[in-house]
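A student in our group prepared the protein record below, which I am reviewing. This is what I was given:
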Amino acid sequence: MQAFDDIIGNSPKMKVCFQRIKQAAASDIHVLILGESGTGKELVAQAIHNLSRRKAGPFVQINCAALNAALLESELFGHIKGAFTGAYRHRKGRFEAADGGSIFLDEIGDIPLSIQVKLLRVLENKQIERVGDHRSVDVDVRIISATHQNLVTLIDQQQFREDLYFRINVIPIRIPPLRERKEDIPLLVNSFVQRLQVRTGKAITGLTPEALQHFMDYAWPGNIRELKSALEYAFVIAEKRKIDIAHLPHPVLEPSTIGVDRTGGRNGSREK
């Protein structure tokens, strides 16, 4: 599989994104991927790893928003036997598992300040300490981070360390939301339809012109993830060769969502 097989787009903004991915992969510098939920940040992180000199090494990922502080610390850095109740054996963390490869820290803006300090040490010294241990362990890991949040705002709110921000934000890559690259919607639709044909066995070949126009008019606040879910819904409802308006989920048909941006405002016109 080639690095960009799962990242679909031919719009000018996506071409810039592809170029940034190639540039980031050519170095070993830490990367920060910025983008709204559902834009495919994990696919970009995987592509950077696949194109890098570390491609033969492991690619380890973790969603930093999915765990509380104690569990996240143990998952990232590991722990020794007896470090806490339930720690019955030594356990390596994600950083040690990623040694020689890349680690993808998704939603890094949700990491507690206490763990940010330990993460900064990894970036500066390439060493980790397992929970309950005072011995350092060397790790050779490239860190790729991602967030949908504004980290500068979190810094102003004293929820994110400024020194950590500067260390992870050496190469920023912004993934445009789907509403900013609507010319890519037909490409995305065709790709997902082909995959759903194989998965479901249905002989559905695409969308009617009317249904596609609704896709083009809709703001897609959930981005590509929402578009994929809308097509999965339509494949369940539709029986004939084309997906029509009647087969689309209600939000895609709701006029109030047309042209609405993520802040709740309206752009004043439909984007074509």
Q: What stands out?
A: The chain has eleven helices and nine strands.
